[in-house]
Design goal:
Blueprint (H helix, E strand, L loop, with lengths): L5 E4 L6 H12 L2 E4 H9 L3 H27 L4 E4 L8 H10 L1 E6 L2 H7 L14 H19 L2 E4 L5 H12 L14
Parallel strand pairs: 1-3, 1-4, 2-3, 4-5
Helix pairs in contact: 1-7, 2-3, 3-4, 5-6
Length: 184
């Protein structure tokens, strides 16, 4: 049971935080970025956690955070999950308990364009950035599919368009909008 929450998943640069904020404002829900919450609770940046504890240490912290959030049982929240949160089977089960999981699917080209100047992405700090993005997207696709209650293509769309598509998928009106069944 997901208690009316949304959990946005997808690769880095898919727009989870931007779309999540827009979806929260449209529905009157609260927005929570799990990566920012992890930084807040640990007192360290994600880059620093990777540096000190490697990716495994970061993933362990991420799993513990998701478990805590499920136990807290908050409602009315749009969560933005980290790009690799769905890699662990335990996390996929927990995320589904946390909320309705929406996978924001993007192409490698979109990711590379959106993150061209990003220096704060530890997994992309390498000379073969484009090849790394393509390989990670391919590797993670099955995890995103396994976790998602719905898949939304996020290529070439504005955040508000994606948020509206999520609401149509859910068949709910946005806060302040009159609901009209258009048959779509």
């Amino acid at each position: 049971m997901h208690k009316g929450n949304y959990v946005l998943t997808g690769y880095m640069g898919s727009g989870k935080s931007t779309v999540g904020k827009k979806l929260a404002s449209m529905t009157g829900m609260t927005f929570q970025d799990l990566d920012l919450l992890l930084e807040e609770r640990s007192g360290m940046s994600i880059s620093r956690i990777f540096e000190l504890e490697t990716e495994k240490g970061f993933r362990d912290r991420e799993s513990a955070l998701i478990r805590d959030l499920v136990e807290e049982g908050r409602t009315g929240v749009v969560y933005s999950a980290g790009g690799g949160a769905t890699l662990r089977e335990e996390n996929r089960r927990l995320l589904k308990r946390l909320g309705r999981v929406i996978w924001l699917d993007v192409s490698a080209e979109t990711v590379i364009e959106r993150l061209s100047g990003a220096a704060d992405r530890p997994l992309l700090q390498r000379p073969d950035r484009e090849a790394a993005v393509k390989a990670m997207l391919k590797e993670r696709r099955s995890a995103y599919e396994a976790c998602a209650d719905a898949r939304i293509c996020a290529d070439g769309k504005y955040p508000v368009q994606i948020a509206r598509e999520i609401l149509r998928e859910e068949d709910l009106p946005a806060k302040g909008e009159k609901y009209e069944d258009t048959g779509h």
